[in-house]
């Protein structure tokens, strides 16, 4: 019977399904006992746990790593490949939750919902202070046009926004046209043209500091930027500088460079909405992610 370590909690129903065909243990702390790692055939993680080269080297019987989510930046893919270890994930499971989070945080920012809520709870009625902006008619730019980017485009169209998108890997004009999206040829075009900018790219060497001290200056003064993808894609110093100087209108951030530690510069800014990596934190998304990887694990071990 395969031995599986669940490092980060997954859906209870998915865990029960695992127990039907495997010996299951839980607890991230067990990764610290590197000497005992060799007994596991499979490791399951979400975003909190990093599967490093050292972990892979010590887990001598490891055959498969499952990421109950989309991004694989917390798994050393090179080390896994060198050892012949299969890596699976659940890229489709989070699309709905993350794309809905984009608009939840966006509306919270541009309609000043959080600030109004805090004011009301202090017994105040400051209606004039919290005049906001609509999504309707705005230029909404999407950087990264994968599944989540496309879903964001569909929702943006429902708001009657004008949707723009850039993706270095997707060049077929028909894909954009079919979704009523204007295809931009560069990131700079998105930054210059759009009032709302939403990032949907994985964290890789090519996307680290994708938004940086240079190109962030292209963003309009009345624009907001949203990051629900990965910390590190926006250079946080560059972002805090333009926010402090009111060079852009605001930011919605669900991901950060050094999670769970927050850059202290953000704490004093009123033009940001901050959330602790909640993009996939819905009951439905976690159930989908858990069941998706369990099905793949079962297929792997049962052939």
From TrEMBL:
Q: Its Gene Ontology molecular function terms?
A: NAD binding; oxidoreductase activity, acting on the CH-OH group of donors, NAD or NADP as acceptor
Is Oxidoreductase included in the keywords of this UniProt record? yes
Q: Name one GO biological process term.
A: amino acid biosynthetic process
Looking at the record, the residues that make up the D-isomer specific 2-hydroxyacid dehydrogenase NAD-binding domain are 104-279
- Occurrences of domain D-isomer specific 2-hydroxyacid dehydrogenase catalytic (ranges): 4-303
List keywords of the entry alphabetically.
Answer: Amino-acid biosynthesis, NAD, Oxidoreductase
Q: Which InterPro entries match?
A: D-2-hydroxyacid_DH (IPR050857), D-isomer_2_OHA_DH_cat_dom (IPR006139), D-isomer_DH_CS (IPR029753), D-isomer_DH_CS1 (IPR029752), D-isomer_DH_NAD-bd (IPR006140), NAD(P)-bd_dom_sf (IPR036291)
**Record bears the keyword Oxidoreductase:** yes
Family per similarity comment? Belongs to the D-isomer specific 2-hydroxyacid dehydrogenase family.
Name by which UniProt lists this protein: Hydroxyacid dehydrogenase
């Amino acid at each position: 019977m395969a031995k599986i370590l669940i490092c980060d909690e997954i859906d209870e129903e998915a865990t029960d399904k695992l127990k039907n065909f495997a010996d299951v243990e839980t607890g991230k702390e067990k990764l610290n006992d590197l000497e005992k790692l060799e007994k596991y055939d499979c490791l399951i993680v979400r975003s909190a746990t990093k599967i490093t080269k050292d972990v892979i080297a010590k887990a001598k019987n490891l055959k498969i790593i499952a990421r109950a989510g989309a991004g694989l930046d917390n798994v050393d893919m090179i080390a896994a490949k060198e050892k012949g270890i299969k890596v699976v994930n659940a890229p489709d499971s989070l699309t709905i939750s993350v794309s809905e989070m984009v608009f939840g945080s966006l509306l919270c920012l541009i309609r000043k919902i959080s600030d109004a809520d805090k004011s009301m709870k202090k017994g105040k009625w400051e209606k004039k202070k919290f005049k906001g902006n609509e999504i309707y008619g705005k230029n909404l730019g999407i950087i990264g046009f994968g599944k989540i980017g496309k879903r964001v485009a569909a929702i943006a169209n429902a708001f009657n926004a004008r949707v723009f998108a850039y993706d270095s890997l997707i060049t077929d004009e028909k894909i954009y046209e079919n979704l009523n999206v204007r295809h931009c040829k560069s990131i700079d075009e998105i930054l210059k043209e759009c009032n709302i900018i939403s990032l949907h790219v994985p964290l890789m060497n090519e996307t680290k500091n994708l938004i940086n001290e240079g190109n962030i200056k292209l963003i309009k003064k009345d624009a907001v930027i949203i990051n629900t993808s990965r910390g590190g894609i926006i250079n946080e110093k560059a972002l805090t500088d333009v926010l402090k100087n009111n060079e852009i209108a605001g930011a919605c951030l669900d991901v950060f460079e050094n999670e769970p530690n927050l850059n202290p510069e953000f704490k004093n800014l009123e033009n940001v909405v901050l959330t602790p990596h909640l993009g996939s934190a819905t009951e439905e998304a976690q159930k989908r992610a858990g069941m998706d990887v369990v099905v793949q694990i079962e297929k792997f071990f049962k052939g």
